[in-house]
Design brief:
The chain is α/β, with parallel strands linked by helices. The protein has 14 helices and eleven strands.
Length: 308
């Protein structure tokens, strides 16, 4: 956590989040890449506002993270959310970009990795996202592994997601997390969700039937000085899940096109998700919104238990 002096220098905390910090209320951090690079307008703004509303309805305070004009932001106003949703001058920000964007007073959308960094700097213990980044298909040749995994492994935080994005190698992602000691807790499931679908075929070690179990597991981990994060895999609601064959076909087509066009690095995920949206005639966006909102609900409930 940053010192008070460094917070004043680098960070702007919204009045609502500051009040929650001062009074010990549960806080849920939210990423902003999903707003700036993950969805089209106006659905991106509508989803951001809906997630914040859902967090409040479930007893916690939302703290959407971003970098605006070189200042780390923890909690955004509606006007600032609209800026993140509409501006074309926003860099997708991972750890390597974080100091550059701040030092040069630029605008950055926080990925899971930099949302974890921001939450840690502000002393927030829970982050909600859509899907966690991971080991990309073909990583044995490209070494393309999301920074999300390292930040999660090295930070005391609970991250709630709908599993790993189905464009990834989910088996290798789980192996990577196991190597770095990150518990993956399935919320009411023992099968790793695959973002758009409820199952990937990869079994999880631990199924949790209540948010209290999840909070207790995380608290116990940290009390035992076993540093690092906890990943909560929360499946998309059944009524919003996509057909597995349809989504897999769309992903294979998108991966082939990305390879043909030489798309790599941090441009890969936005490109693949955009192609999946196109191939599924917009159905993937509906599912994406549903799973993020569901994660916001479960995340707020876990945060409430953690802060007890």
């Amino acid at each position: 956590m940053l010192s008070r002096e460094m917070m004043k220098k680098y960070m702007v905390i919204s009045p609502e989040v500051q009040d929650a910090m001062d009074n010990g209320y549960p806080i849920v951090a939210l990423e902003s890449t999903i707003i700036s690079h993950g969805m089209p307008y106006p659905q991106n703004l509508e989803t951001a506002l809906a997630c914040e509303r859902i967090v409040r309805e479930n007893g916690a305070i939302p703290a959407t993270t971003a970098i605006i004009n070189g200042k780390i932001r923890v909690g955004l106003s509606e006007e600032e959310l609209k800026f993140m949703a509409t501006s074309k001058d926003i860099i997708k920000c991972s750890r390597r970009d974080y100091p550059y964007i701040i030092a040069n007073k630029l605008n950055g959308a926080t990925t899971v990795a930099t949302s974890i960094i921001t939450a840690s700097l502000a002393g927030i213990k829970l982050l909600v996202t859509g899907g966690i980044g991971g080991v990309h298909r073909g990583a044995e040749e490209t070494f393309d592994i999301s920074r999300d995994l390292q930040e999660l492994a090295g930070t005391d935080i609970v991250v709630v997601c709908a599993g790993a994005k189905s464009i990834l190698d989910i088996g290798l992602t789980l192996e990577y997390l196991e190597t770095f000691g990150v518990p993956v807790l399935g919320y009411k499931t023992d099968d790793m969700p695959a973002f758009y679908t409820r199952k990937s075929g990869y079994k999880l070690d631990y199924k949790m039937d209540s948010v209290a179990e999840i909070a207790n597991t995380a608290s116990t981990k940290w009390e035992l000085k076993l540093s690092g994060g906890v990943l909560v895999a929360n499946p998309i609601p059944e009524e919003d899940a996509m057909d597995e064959n349809l989504i897999n076909s769309a992903i294979e087509s998108a991966l082939k096109e990305a390879k043909e066009k030489g798309i790599t690095g941090k441009e890969t995920t936005p490109f693949l998700l955009g192609k999946v949206l196109e191939v599924t005639s917009g159905k993937s966006l509906v599912s994406n919104i549903a799973l993020v909102e569901n994660n916001a609900k479960v995340g707020a409930q876990i945060a409430r238990e953690l802060y007890r």
